[in-house]
TrEMBL record:
The keyword Flavoprotein applies. Pathway: Lipid metabolism; fatty acid beta-oxidation. Pfam families: ACDH_C (PF09317), Acyl-CoA_dh_1 (PF00441), Acyl-CoA_dh_N (PF02771). This is Acyl-coenzyme A dehydrogenase. Residues 300-446 form the Acyl-CoA dehydrogenase/oxidase C-terminal domain. NCBIfam families: PRK09463.1, PRK13026.1.
């Protein structure tokens, strides 16, 4: 044992063990879900922008483009959204048949199982286009291809389960749903009251060892019409039939909705957005053990399954739907502002209208830029859980802003419902996107930075694992290695932040031969300041940062803006630097810098360790955090 390890590291190690809470098994599974991608670069404080620009853009195959031009276009032409809302309150039978025949429910299922085998990019583009003409149809197409039996079976199912279920899901013979949200616990799987008891019962005339289920799920999309459900429940074995103890953990099973004791068919009405959604009930439902997803070997692995699927799925479904809503708002509101006149002048000529119009255009460009970048990463095999959380929260936040701005500009035209109101459906659906797949208020306050600081930080997870090591000497050795590497990294980053901060970003790097060099340099400056502030926040607050949710949210906002603004600049490069887009990109960057300035100041003003706030200001922001709104001239342009 070295002098450093024994005399310097050991006291720090013991102090850290006292202030940092141990990682629970649930937290460990959530942290381990997915992969680290560009978020890891941002946490280094010195992201390699050339690597980002070298990443191939999202592309559709000829078959995928043909599907988008053909069946997707036909589907949109079949739907009368006003009739659906005001009379039918469901997709008409011919639309359901069309969805089945054209395998809309099997987009992610590989061709060998009868599905379309589409890329994540194609999945996203289909959801985006369908959602632009019908929110109800968009949700109906989205859900079977998102977190549900199909995707979970691809990752975790036995070969027999895949061979039987996937072809039936692909061609629409089976309609899937996934039962996670509990009556009392919401989507907090750890607090669910739905149980499965291991016991003997009768199945197909034979006495077999199985599971007795009792559950009450709610808010389950496609639940009323589903023929097969994935079900998350807590599994117990009071008599230890399986020899694994009593509490076996969260488990997922796959069962037909026609199973004895299952009830479904009742409907919820999510803000008059009439996609199929409702509760699932199960009273003394007996199923054999081989109905567990993945078989008995996957008992207790339900939380891991859910987190793994969510790590990617959150980056596709709702961001695609948000992109559609933002595009609808931009297209219709821009046109309306030209043809609607006040005092014989198009309202788009008034500065009071130009301001919200600029926000609508900026949101549409930004959401779609980030969506394309994210699905391209997914197609490369990444499963970036932190980036997916950023996309889900911030795409839906900006979608909400766009819809509100569009409603303001349209005035009375937008508040009178009817077949010619193209904004009402988008407006009604806004809170749904904000709430589902992890409510934004939770995602922003806890998930983005809370998970990112551990998962994507170069050293934090390694240090925490060392602190959780049962063998203290091994833990000390591991901690010594990673802690001093972390110290060196932080020192380099402090120096980097100082140079970039005191030169106003002029000494910060930018990618070679890229446009908007000054913006790339500013992102590099903000990235180093973010990494410095993150390390100081973690150092001074330790495990208490979990409870400082407002600080965590602001740090997450900075991380999110770095990702989103990088995506905007990459899109501009990928599309050949169109001259017409330059004012829009300038506007987006200015708004993004302001969001980061507010977040930086919010952290620095409220950080309990005042010395850490002063150090950060002196090193990274000697003249204060820059804060400049886009000019009126740029906004009007």
């Amino acid at each position: 044992m070295s002098f450093r390890q024994d005399k310097l590291t050991r006291p720090i190690y013991r102090w850290a063990k006292g202030v940092m809470p141990p990682i629970s098994e649930t937290e460990r599974e959530a942290i381990d879900a997915g992969t680290v991608w560009w978020d890891g670069q941002l946490f280094t404080g010195d992201p390699d922008w050339d690597k980002l620009l070298a990443m191939p853009p999202a592309r559709l195959s000829p078959d995928e483009q043909a599907f988008l031009d053909g069946p997707v276009g036909e589907l949109c032409a079949m739907i009368d959204e006003w009739k659906l809302v005001s009379e039918d309150r469901d997709l008409p039978p011919e639309v359901w048949d069309f969805l089945r025949r054209n395998k809309f429910f099997g987009m992610i299922i590989p061709k060998e199982y009868g599905g379309l085998g589409f890329s994540n990019t194609a999945h996203s583009e289909v959801v985006r286009k369908v959602s632009s003409c019908s929110v109800v149809a968009g949700v109906t197409v989205m859900v079977p291809n998102s977190l549900g039996p199909g995707e979970l079976m691809l990752h975790f199912g036995t070969q027999a389960q895949r061979d039987y279920w996937l072809p039936r899901l692909a061609d629409g013979r089976e309609i899937p749903c996934f039962g996670l949200t509990s009556q009392e616990a919401g989507s907090d799987a750890a607090a669910m009251l739905d149980t499965g008891m291991v016991e003997y019962g009768e199945h197909e005339g034979e006495r077999v060892l199985g599971i007795r289920l009792n559950f009450h799920k709610r808010y389950i999309t496609l639940g009323p019409v589903a023929t097969v459900m994935g079900l998350a429940f807590k599994m117990f074995d009071p008599q230890n039939h399986l020899g694994k103890g009593e509490d076996l953990g969260i488990t997922v099973a796959l069962l037909p909705t026609a199973t004895k004791g299952v009830r479904h068919g009742d409907r919820h009405v999510p803000l008059l957005t009439y996609f199929q959604n409702g509760p699932l009930y199960g009273d003394d439902v007996f199923i054999p053990l081989d109905w567990i997803l993945g078989g008995p070997d996957q008992i207790g692995q339900g939380w891991t399954m859910l987190m793994t699927a969510l790590a990617a799925g959150r980056g596709i479904s709702l961001p695609s739907q948000s992109s559609a809503a933002a595009a609808v708002c931009a297209r219709t509101t821009g046109a309306y502002a030209r043809v609607r006149t006040q005092f014989n002048v198009p309202i788009g000529m008034f500065e009071g209208i130009q301001q919200p119009l600029a926000d609508i255009a900026a949101n549409a460009y930004l959401i779609d830029a980030a969506r394309r970048l994210t699905v391209a990463a997914l197609d490369e095999g990444h499963k970036p859980s932190v980036v997916s959380a950023i996309m889900k929260a911030h795409a839906t936040y900006r979608m909400r802003e766009s819809v509100e701005r569009a409603m303001d500009i349209h005035g009375g035209k937008a508040i009178i419902d009817g077949p010619k109101n193209y904004l009402a459906a988008q407006y009604r659906s806004v809170p749904i996107g904000i709430t589902v797949e992890g409510a934004n208020i939770l995602t922003r306050n806890l998930m983005i930075f809370g998970q990112g600081a551990i998962r994507a930080h170069p050293y934090m997870l390694k240090e925490l694992l060392a602190l959780s090591e049962e063998d203290e000497e091994k833990g000390l050795a591991d901690f010594d290695k990673h802690f001093w590497a972390h110290v060196g990294h932080s020192a380099k980053n402090a120096l980097r932040s100082f140079v970039r901060g005191w030169t106003g970003g002029l000494a910060a790097p930018a990618p070679r031969n890229a446009a908007f060099t000054s913006h790339w340099r500013q992102l590099s400056r903000y990235a180093s300041a973010f990494a410095l502030l993150s390390d100081l926040s973690l150092l001074t607050l330790g495990g208490a940062l979990k409870r400082k949710e407002m600080l965590s949210a602001r740090l997450g906002d900075i991380l999110s803006e770095l990702y989103l603004l990088g995506a905007v600049l990459k899109r501009f490069e990928t599309e050949g630097r169109p001259e017409a887009d330059k004012p829009l990109v300038e506007y987006i960057m200015a708004k993004g810098y302001n969001r980061m300035a507010l977040a930086f100041n919010g952290v620095l003003d409220n950080l309990p360790a005042r010395w850490a706030a002063i150090v950060t200001r002196v090193i990274a922001f000697p003249l204060g955090v820059p804060y400049h709104e886009p000019s009126d001239e740029l906004t009007s342009e």
